[in-house]
Specification:
Length: about 160
C-alpha cells in the first residue's frame, strides 16, 4: 500500500489544480530502482525494513514516518500543488515547482525518521544499537528516502 495525497478541498481553484496536475506526479520514498545493495544486504532489504516500520510487522510496532510526514505537511503540499498549477497556467513547465515540492517532501520524511521517538525500542534493541532512536540504526533508511518527478507515461523528468 502506497501513501497518497488526496485533495479534498473543492472550488474552481482546486479544479484548475487537478486539471493541471494530471500530466505530472512526484513520488517520495524508497524508490524502486534507486537503491543499491551494500555488502551482503540485498537492495530490497531497506524497503522491506521501512515498510515493516511504517505499518508494523510481528513484534515490530507501527512507526508511521511517511504517513506522519504527509499529515503534518498537508497545507504545505497544497501550497506546492497550487504553485505547480499557477506555473502551468502561465505556460511554464511544472517540472521546477514539482522538483521543489519533491525535495521538500523528501526532507520532511527524513526529518520525521530522525525525530520520531514513539513507540520506543525495546531495552534489548537499545543496547544492541546503542541508540534509543527507533528508526535509525545505520542511517541508511533515512538516506534512501528520495523523490522523483514523473510524467504521465511514468518516465522520470
Amino acid at each position: 500500500m502506497r501513501p497518497t495525497v488526496r485533495i479534498e478541498q473543492s472550488g474552481d481553484g482546486m479544479k484548475k489544480i487537478r486539471k493541471h496536475l494530471h500530466d505530472v506526479s512526484v513520488e517520495v520514498g524508497i524508490l524502486r530502482g534507486k537503491y543499491k545493495a551494500e555488502g551482503d544486504e540485498p537492495a530490497r532489504y531497506v524497503a522491506q525494513v521501512a515498510a515493516q516500520n511504517e505499518y508494523g510487522h510481528g513484534r515490530i510496532p507501527s512507526r508511521p514516518f511517511m504517513r506522519n510526514s504527509l499529515r503534518k505537511h498537508k497545507k504545505d503540499i497544497r501550497k506546492g500543488l497550487r504553485r505547480v498549477a499557477q506555473s502551468e497556467t502561465r505556460a511554464k513547465p511544472p517540472r521546477g515547482q514539482m522538483m521543489r515540492l519533491g525535495m521538500a517532501a523528501q526532507n520532511w520524511v527524513r526529518r520525521e525518521i530522525t525525530d520520531l521517538r514513539t513507540p520506543p525500542n525495546a531495552p534489548m534493541t537499545i543496547a544492541k544499537k546503542r541508540s534509543s532512536n527507533p528508526l535509525i540504526d545505520t542511517g541508511r533508511m533515512r538516506q534512501e528516502i528520495q523523490f522523483r518527478v514523473m510524467n504521465r507515461s511514468g518516465q522520470t523528468i
